[in-house]
User: Which sequence fits this backbone?
């Protein structure tokens, strides 16, 4: 009789250890999700790109006067953050009807655009008003940072 009590207690102990181990894994995942959501707001000036308040370089096929604000996005196919931001950028295009979003992925064809804007890192964003003047520039690592950039540029424009 006492041998079966020991076996039952060991089984219960291992079940408890398995449940606690699973709980730790779930909590660690949740911490990762929270870390991804709670990022610094606003863009990070990277010391590159056009200066604020100067005329933006002309882009083929893009009319800055067409919308109240133009957001030029510079991405790379090897950038994990760029891939993470891509669906959000497309959703922003649908959400904000008064802004134009143009994305340039780094390749041989778009290298002159990267050079004309003096961009060396991705994901890099430049906002340009209707008159073709650069409002804000910087690296945004989350959709929230990009939205803050758009909102600040709109406030400057008013």
Assistant:
């Amino acid at each position: 009789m006492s041998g079966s009590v020991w076996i039952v207690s060991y089984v219960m102990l291992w079940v408890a250890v398995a449940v606690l181990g699973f709980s730790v894994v779930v909590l660690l995942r949740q911490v990762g999700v929270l870390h991804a959501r709670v990022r610094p707001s606003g863009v990070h000036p990277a010391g590159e790109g056009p200066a604020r308040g100067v005329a933006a370089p002309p882009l083929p096929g893009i009319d800055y006067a067409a919308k109240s604000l133009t957001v030029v996005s510079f991405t790379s196919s090897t950038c994990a953050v760029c891939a993470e931001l891509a669906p959000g950028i497309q959703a922003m295009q649908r959400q904000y009807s008064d802004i134009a979003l143009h994305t340039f992925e780094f390749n041989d064809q778009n290298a002159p655009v990267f050079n004309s804007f003096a961009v060396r890192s991705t994901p890099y964003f430049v906002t340009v008003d209707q008159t073709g003047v650069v409002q804000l520039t910087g690296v945004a690592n989350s959709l929230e940072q990009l939205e803050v950039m758009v909102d600040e540029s709109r406030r400057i424009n008013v």
In short: Helices lie at 2-37, 80-95, 111-116, 143-157. The first strand starts at residue 69 and ends at 75.
